[in-house]
Amino acid sequence: MIEITNLSKGFGATKALDSMSCTIPDGCIFGMVGANGAGKSTLLRLISGIYLPDEGSVKVNGREVYDNPQAKADVVFSSDLMRLVSSGATLKRMAQFYASVYKNFSYEKFEHLAGIFNLKPQMRVRAMSKGMTKQSQTIIALACCTPIMLFDETFDGLDPVARNVAKKLLYREVCDNGTTIIVTSHSLRELEDTCDQLAMVYKGKIVLQSDVSDLKTKLFKVQLAFDEEHGREEFAQEGLEILSFTKTGKVVTIILKGDRDEAEAKINSMKPVLMEVLPLSLEEVFTYEMNIMGYKFEDID
Amino acid sequence: MSVFKAKASFFSGSYYKELLRELRIFGIIFAVLQLICGLAGAGGRPLSLGPMSLLMYDVLGSNLNPQHTDVFLLYFFVCGLNFVSTHIWRKNWDFRNCLPIAKRTMFVCHLAAVLTWAVVIFAANYLGAFIGEGIRLITSATSVPDGFGMSAVSMLKAIVQGISIYSLFVIICSVTNRVFAQLAAVGVIIGLPILFNVLQAYQRANGIDTLELLLPIGIGGIIAFKTIFSVLLAIALTVIAYFAFGKSRVETYQKSARAAWINVLIGLGVAACVGIISTLIICNTEGMLRLGRSEASYENPSWYYSIAYALIPMLIAYFVYMWITERSFVSALKKCAFLPLVLVVFGAATLIALAADKKWEKLDFSYENIECVRIRDEHFIGTSHNGMLAYDGGFSGRVRGRSNAYSVKITDNTIRRLASEHAKISMYEPGSISAALENYLLGILSPNRVEITLKDGTRWSISGGSDLSIDALAGCEEYIEALASLDRFKGAKVIAPMNFGAELNKTLLEELAALEPAERAKLLTDNGGRPSGFYHDYTGITLFEYDDNTWKSDYGYELTLVSPTYDHVAVIELGSSFPKTTELYMKLMNEKTRKHRDYEEFISTLKTAQFWDCHLSTSILKDGKMLSNSIGMDGVQFAGGINGDAAQYKQDVLDLCTFIAECIEQNAPIEGADAVFGLGVGLFTPYVEGKEYWSYSRLFRGNDAKFFVGLDKQKAEKLEQLITSFKEKYMVNYEPSYDMEFTAIEEAVAEGSLKLYDQSGNELTLDDVVRLYKDGYEWFYVENGEQMHIYDIYEMLMKDKEQTL
Question: Exposure of B139 by Cβ count < 10 A (0-12 exposed, 13-18 middle, 19+ buried)?
Fold first, then answer.
C-alpha cells in the first residue's frame, strides 16, 4: 500500500505538489490524469524515492521511501529515464542493468514479453522509435517483478494494437501477481478501460479520486417522455440528485447521481410514457463530477 | 519532517559489477595509455634511444613524455567527472535514484570500481615496462632498467592524489548545483592553500621551511609528514564525499549551494583568493614585497598594512559572487556582513609567519654552535642528471632511487663558517606559482637544501644559496673523501643492452678502488659533459662527427654503473684509468657482435665495397693511451667526382676495405696481440637493394659498426700505412685556419708554459699536439680539465702574457 500524507514538493517558486494526500491500495491499477505540469510525474518521482518531500510523507508498505533501498526495492519506475542506462545500450543491456539491481528480475519473463512486442534484445535503445522505447520500458518494468510498478505516460506513442497489448499485460500483472500499478496519462480515455481507480491531479492536488466502477454506476443518464410537461423542481421534489436537466417539449433528459434502482422507482412513480437509462462515458462522469466540485473540466484536460 | 532511517548496505556487489562494466571504456583507454608509458620506459621516462621514444620523437616532432603519474591523475579526473555526470547531473540523478540502492552505496561502489580499474592500469604499466625492456633487448637499444619498486611508489602516490581529486569533484558537485558556484569552489580549494602558503611565506624573515620550524621533525620527518598528510587528506575527502553525496539533492533549483552557509563559505574563499592576489600584485608593484628577495635587512610589511590594499577588490569579488549566485542585490548586500571573516585567513597566515620567525630567532646558527653540515650531492653536481643520485629526469618526483639516499657530513671549519653565514641571511623562497602548486599537490620539497646540525643535535634544512658554492665544496677534503667512497656502489653493476656478466662489474669496481681518491671522486660525479635531456644515453656508443671534411671520433667508451638500489649512478669513461675493464669490455663486445645475425652480411658488404659512403675510424690502445685515426670513403660504385684516377680510387677503396674486413674476420685474440685496434666502420646506405641507412644499426647500436680487433705488429703497421696513403691521395687536405694562434700555442707547449691533455687526462707531447692539429683537431684539454678551442687557448695565452708584462 502506498500512503501519501500532506505531501508537498516545490522547485523554487513553483509548487509542484501542494499538501496532497491519498492512499493507493494493493493489487489495483491506479490511474492519474492531469495536464502538463499538474504534478503527476513529480508524484511518481516522490513515490519512487527520487525526491525528498518538502513536507509530508510517502510511505511504501509502511516505510519512508526516500533513500531507503528496502522500500525502493518494492518499486520500479518505468519512464524515459530508463534509456539512460548507458549510451548505445541494447535492450539486453538494459535488462542486465535492471537485473543487477532488482533481485526478482525475471529474464524468462523479459524474453517472453519481448517476444510479444516483437522486440529483439540486441536492438540498440538509441535506434528505437518512440513506441518501441515505450514498449521496452514497459517490459523491463514488468520483468523486474516488484510489488509496485509506476508507469509514466506509458501509453503515449504506442499504436492502438500495442496499447491494447500493454493494457492487457498490466491487467494480467495485477490479476496474476497482485501487483499495484500506477499509470499516468494526459488522456482519460486511455485509462478508462484499464484502471480500477482514478485520480484527477490539478495544480499539485488530487481533486478527484474514485473507484471507476463506482463512478460509472453512481452517475447515469435517463431519457424520459411524458404525456404532460414536467419541470426540474418536480423531479427534485421526488428526492432525485440531479446533475443536469434538459427538456425538449415533453421529452426530458436528466443526469442523475445515486442508486439507480431507487431513482428508477422514483421516476416510475411520475408515470413516464417512456423511460430509458443510458450509460455515461468516464469523461462525461468526470465532467459532471468536476462541475459539482466547482471545476470546469476543460480547464483540467 | 522526519525521515525513517533505514539501514542501507554499505556495498552492493551487483552494482559494483555493473559500474565496473560502465567504467570499462575509461579503464581500457587509460590502461593502454599506461601500457605506452611502460613501453616508453617504466615510469614513463623516455630515458633511452629505444624505438618507442624515437617513434614518438620522430612522429610527433616533440619530446612527448607520457608520464605514468599524469595518466593516473587524468584517470581519476575523468572518473570524478564520470561520477558527477552519471550520478549527480539532473537526468542521471533521477535515473539512478529511483533504483533500490542508497546513494552512499552508489558512491562506495563507484569508488571501488574506479580503484579496481586503477589496479588494472597499474598492472598495464608494468606489462608495458616488461615488453619495453624486451623490445630494447631485442633491438639492442640502450636503456637503464627502471626501479619497479620506485615506479610503484610514485604510481601509488598518484593514486592517492587521484582519490583526492575524485572526492573533491563529488564534494563540490554535491554541495553546489550551479556551474558558476562549482567552478568558484574548485578555484578556492586549489588556489587558497597555495596563496595562503605564499602569503605566509612573504611575511617570513628566514629560510627554513615553516613545517620544519613549527614541527621540529627534520627534513625526513617533513617528507613523511607530507606523505601521511596526503594519505589522510585523501581519506578525509573520501569520507566527506561519502556523506556529502548522501546528503546531496539535485532538485534544489535556484540555489547555488545546498545550504546558504556553504555558498557564503565559497564566497569568502573567493574573496580571500582575490584579496591575497591583490595584496601580492599591489605590494609587488609598490616594491614592498618582492619575489626572490635576498636582502637580510628586508622588512616585511604587516598583514594589516598589506590587506588595506586588498580590501576593495576583495569586497568587489565577494559582492559580485554573491550577487550572481543569490540573484538578488539586496541578499548579496546583506551577506556582506560575513566578509570580515576573511581576515581570519590573513591573520592565520601572519600568525604562522610570526610563530615561525619567533622559533627561528631562538636558534643559534653561530659557527661555534654548528656541529656539522650535511650537503646532498646534487648541490655539488648542480644537476640531478648524473652523479651519485639517479637521474630522474625531473619528472613527477623520483621514480628511481631515493632522493635523500646520499648526503655528505662535513665538519670542516670553512664550510661550517659558510653555513653559519648562509643560515643567517637565507630567505624562504616560495618560488613560482607552479612550484608552489607542485609543492602543495605532490609534496615535493626543493632538493637544493643544506642541512645544518646544531650542537644540541637538532637539524635544520636551509634553502641552498650561492655561499655554499661548488668551488667552496670542491676545496673541502672531507667532502671529496666522502664522494670518493665506493661504499654506495657496493654490488653495483654495469648497465648495458646486453648482460656483460659479473666479471666486468667486478673488474670495473676493482679498478675504481685502485684510483686516487680525488680522481675517483671526479669520475664518480662527473657528468661527462653530455647534454642533459632527451638523448641521454648510458652505454658506450662511439660518437662520430663530420667536421671540417674529416671524420672525428672521440672514442669515449662509457659504462653506466648503477648501485643495486638504483640510488646511485655513475657514468664511467673508460680509457687509461681502466685498462683491464676496457680490454674486457672490448672482448665481450666482440663476442656479442660476431654472433649477430647481420654480421656476415656486413662483412660481405665491406669486403666488396658495396656501399655509397663509408667512414672508418681506428683507435689503438697502447700503453694505456688511445690514439685515433679516421678517413672517409665513397663507395666504389659512386666514385665520380674524385680528383685523380677514378679506377685507381676504386681499387684503393676495395683494397683498404678488403684488408679491414680480413682483419675483422681474422678475429685474433686481443690478449697477447702487440696492439689492440678498435675499428669503427660506418656504412651509410649500403649498395644493396632494399637496404637503407639503418640496415646495420641493430648490429651496432647507433650508426656505426664497432669492432675490437687484435692485430700483430705487421698487420697494424700495414693498416696504418694503407690509411695514411689513402688520406694523402684522396682526402681533401685539411687546411688549418688558426695558423697564427696555433703557432703561439706550439711555442708555449715547446717552452713548457702550456700543457695540453687528451680526454683521458694524459699530457700530450708537442708532436701529438701538432699531429692532432694537422688532423683537424681544434679542441684540447687544458690543465684544469676544461676542453678549450684553439682560439680560446690562444686568447688565454695572450691574457697571461699581458698580465706578465
Answer: middle
Between the alpha carbon of residue A60 and those of residues A26, A68, B106, B280, B399, the distances in Å are 10, 10, 22, 59, 56
Predicted structure pTM score = 0.67
Q: How far apart are CA A25 and CA A7, in angstroms?
A: 17
Angle between the N-to-C axes of helices A160-177 and A130-143, in degrees from 0 to 180, rounded to the nearest 10: 10
Q: What is the pLDDT of residue B463?
A: 61
Residue B243 has pLDDT above 90, yes or no: yes
Of the candidates A47, A42, A20, A91, the one whose C-alpha atom is nearest the C-alpha of residue B98 is A47
Q: What is the mean pLDDT of residues B636-653?
A: 65
- Find the helix or strand (DSSP H, E) in which A197 lies: strand A197-202
Name which CATH class applies to A2-203.
Answer: alpha beta
CA atoms of A155 and A174, how far apart (whole Å): 17
Give every strand in the sheet of A55-60, ordered side by side.
A14-24, A2-11, A55-60, A63-64
Q: Give the CB-side neighbour count of residue B405, counting CA atoms within 13 A.
A: 22
Length of chain A: 301
Q: What is the mean pLDDT of chain B?
A: 70
Cell numbers at B545, concatenated:
662527427
A69:B102 CB<8 A: yes
- Residue B370, helix vs strand vs coil: strand
HSE at residue B22, side-chain half, CA atoms within 13 A, is 26
Residue-wise DSSP of B130-145: HHHHHHHHHHT---PP
B94 touches chain A (CB under 8 A): yes
Q: Is residue B613 within 8 Å of B633, Cβ to Cβ?
A: yes
Long-range contacts of A89-96 (CB under 8 A, 24+ apart): A89/A124, A89/A125, A89/A126, A90/A121, A90/A122, A90/A123, A90/A124, A90/A125, A91/A119, A91/A120, A91/A121, A91/A122, A91/A123, A91/A125, A91/A136, A92/A121, A92/A122, A94/A125, A94/A136, A94/A140, A95/A121, A95/A140, A95/A143
Flag whether pLDDT at B539 surpasses 70. Answer: no
Domain covering A215-300, topology: Alpha-Beta Plaits (3.30.70)
Instruction: Quote the ipTM score.
Output: 0.81
Q: Which residue type, as a one-letter code, is found at position A164?
A: N
Query: By the CB < 8 Å criterion, does B190 face chain A?
Result: no
The minimal CB distance from A66 to the residues B3, B91, B93 is found for: B3
Q: How far is CA B434 from CA B266, B318, B738, in A?
A: 23, 26, 48
Count the helix, strand and coil residues of chain B and give each as a percent rounded to the nearest 5. Answer: 55, 10, 30
pLDDT interval class at B231 (50, 70, 90)? very high
Residue whose grid cell is 688549418: B736
Q: What is the pLDDT of residues B670-704, one digit of tens each?
A: 555 455 565 666 555 555 555 543 444 444 443 34
- Tell me the pLDDT tens digit for each residue of B75-134: 999 999 999 888 888 778 888 888 899 999 999 999 999 999 999 999 998 888 778 767
Where do the domains of chain A lie?
2-203, 215-300
**Residues facing A242 on adjacent strands:** A256
The per-residue pLDDT for range B396-449, each reduced to its tens digit, is: 223 334 444 556 777 888 778 877 877 766 555 544 444 444 444 433 344 445
User: Cβ of A64 under 8 Å from any chain B Cβ?
Assistant: yes
Contact between B91 and A84 using a beta-carbon 8 Å cutoff? yes
Output the nine-digit C-alpha cell for A138. Answer: 514497459
Residue linked to cell 422507482: A265
Residue A76 near residue A141, CB atoms below 8 Å: yes
- Closest alpha carbon to B77 in B167, B157, B187, B3: B167
Q: Which residues of B touch A8 (CB under 8 A)?
A: none
Determine the pLDDT at residue B164.
Answer: 92
Whether chain A has a CB inside 8 Å of the CB on B24: the answer is no
Q: Which has the closest alpha carbon to B378: B189, B567, B216, B240?
A: B567
pLDDT (average), residues B572-591? 73
Query: What span, in angstroms and rounded, lies between the C-alpha atoms of B243 and B637?
Result: 80
Residue A82's CB is within 10 A of a number of other CB atoms, namely 23
